[in-house]
Each structure stands twice: as C-alpha cells, then as structure tokens.
Amino acid sequence: MSDIIIRATGKRAPLRFVLVSIKNTMNEIGAKHNAQNFALKLMAETAAASLLLSSGLKFPGTVSLRIDIDGDLRLAQADSTPQGLLRAMVQQEDIARLGANEPLLTPQKLSVIKLNEKSQRVKESMVEAPSMQMGENLTAYMLQSEQTKSTTGILADFSKENSRKLNFAIGFLIEAYPDAEARDLEIMNAAVRNLPNLKDFYDGSEYKIHDLLDGLRGSYEIDIVKEVVPQAYCPCSKEKVLASLEGLHDCEIRDIRQKDETLDVVCDFCRAHYAVKSNELRSLATMR
After folding, report:
1. CA dist., res. 265 & res. 254, Å (int)
2. How many whole angstroms from its chain centre is CA 237?
3. Nearest Cα to Cα of residue 234 among 208, 270, 264
4. Which residue, 46, 144, 161, 261, has most beta carbons within 10 Å?
C-alpha cells in the first residue's frame, strides 16, 4: 500500500482525526542515512510526529520537530509541511556507533518550531519529554504548548529479516476542538481505550491504516476531508550551503583559500554532498 496522510473530522463530535502511514518514505530517507534498527525506528517516529503537527497548520509553512535524548542516540529531527513534504535525520556518528545494538535512551526534551512560507519563525515551544514513546511526548506537547486536549499513538517497527527496512511507520492524532464538551472527550478517550494494539493492524505485508481509522472513530460518523501522499523532500541547495558558511571566521576562510582546499559539505537531512571551492569562499569573504 502507498504511504498516505488522512485528515478527517467527526460529523457530530467536534473532533479532528489525522493518520499517517509513511513506511516507504522513511525507508527511502533511512537508506540515505544508512540507518537501521532503532535509529531507523526513532527517525520514523519523529517524522510521524512532525507530520501529525504540520497537518494542522493554518498557513503554508513547516513544522520542525526535534527530540533531544541522553544516551546512545542524542537527537532526532524531522521537518514537514501540510503538503506532506518530509525530511528527517539522526546524527551520523550516532548511527555508526550504535550499529545494530539496542540503545540505552533517556528522553530529555521535545522542541517544536513552526515556520511560515518565508521560513520565518512563527512559534517555538519546548516541553519536557516524559517518555521514549513519541505519542506520549506529542500528547504532552499538545496540552502544554497548544492548550489542546488530544490523544496520540505513534509506532514504527523494523523488519527482523532486514533491519534496514521498516514493516510499518504509522501515527494517529485525535484532537478535540475548543468547543468540545466532557462527553466528546470521553468519546475520544474511549476510542483509544478500546483500540487493539497498534501492531495488530499489520497483517504481515501491509498496515491496515483505514481499519485503524475505523477503530478510532468507533460508532461515530466521520468525513474524510483530505488524503495526501507524503514525499521525501529536502530544500537544501548550493546557495543555502554558501549562506550557512557565512558563520565562518575570516581567518578560517583565509586558511582554506591559502591551502586552495575544496570543502565537502554534507546535508544532515538528505546526505547530499556539495563541493565548495576556495574561490567561492573568496567571493563570500568579498561580500562581507
């Protein structure tokens, strides 16, 4: 089954539903990072959380979600848009050090930055991450930073036969609108209490995301507002790389120019390589 983002609303209950299934997209991104096992799982679950948030943006823009961790993996970050464009990363040195081992991890904080279409920061929030379960972290963020009652589930599972491939990577968010009453919140909570284990919707070959939606809505009718196909995308470019090098000190630029070196700059997200020649740095220094 193709990857999908489903957005729906309750016909009578003031609830919003978002579901994401991103196995193929994350296998593509994970391959660029040479990620496997728990590093791939963490990257996928972070990406699912970002997509759930960006689906609720009221403007064209981006949600950048990052979790900081104490342990064998130090952070994961994912950026996504309402159109389903997605990129994600875990630090390369952590992936190499961890290998196929199971990591020891202690969650620290969850940070969310919302950007408008001009990449200007509209909102920035940070909450303590209560768990390594990304769904619990996202629920805590929604309550503390958005003052919104919600319930969330996120899960990625890697293949035991090929640890560089995911069996599935899914997430759901049920959000109560501001006018929701106590009985509406009970509908939301009951749907999750009665839900089978998220792994039960995987039949061994594909994840039954529409069956999960049926389980979440229970006996209440919903309207599917939109379905979006997520896509791996990174907006990096040579021009943006040169702009990022503006932070180099003049002495560092002079040293590179004197040695006539070519810098190999690698994007943290898509792993694209950019060769920056010394004469390009010379132009950069002249512009200052």
Report:
1. 18
2. 21
3. 270
4. 46
Domains of the chain as residue ranges with CATH: 4-232 (3.55.30.10), 238-287 (3.90.1280.10)
Rounded CA-CA distance 80/14 in Å is 26
Q: In this predicted model, what pLDDT tens digit does every residue of 127-183 receive, in sequence order?
A: 999 999 999 999 999 999 999 999 999 999 999 899 999 999 999 999 998 888 888
Type of residue numbered 27: N
C-alpha dihedral, 149 to 150 to 151 to 152, nearest 10°: -140
Question: Considering the entire predicted model, what is its pTM?
Answer: 0.92
CA-wise closest residue to 201 among 189, 217, 188, 215: 215
Name residues whose C-beta falls within 8 Å of residue 75's C-beta, 6 or more positions apart in sequence.
66, 67, 68, 69, 90, 91
Tokens of 156: 């990625």
pLDDT over 80 at 48, yes or no: yes
Q: What single DSSP character describes residue 62?
A: E
What is the distance between the alpha carbons of residues 213 and 168, in angstroms, rounded to a whole number?
Answer: 16
Alpha carbon of residue 87 to chain centroid: 7
Angstrom distance (rounded) from CA 212 to CA 195: 8
Structure tokens at 14: 């003031």
Query: How far from 80 is each of 55, 84, 163, CA to CA, in Å?
Result: 9, 6, 25
The amino acid that residue 172 corresponds to is: F
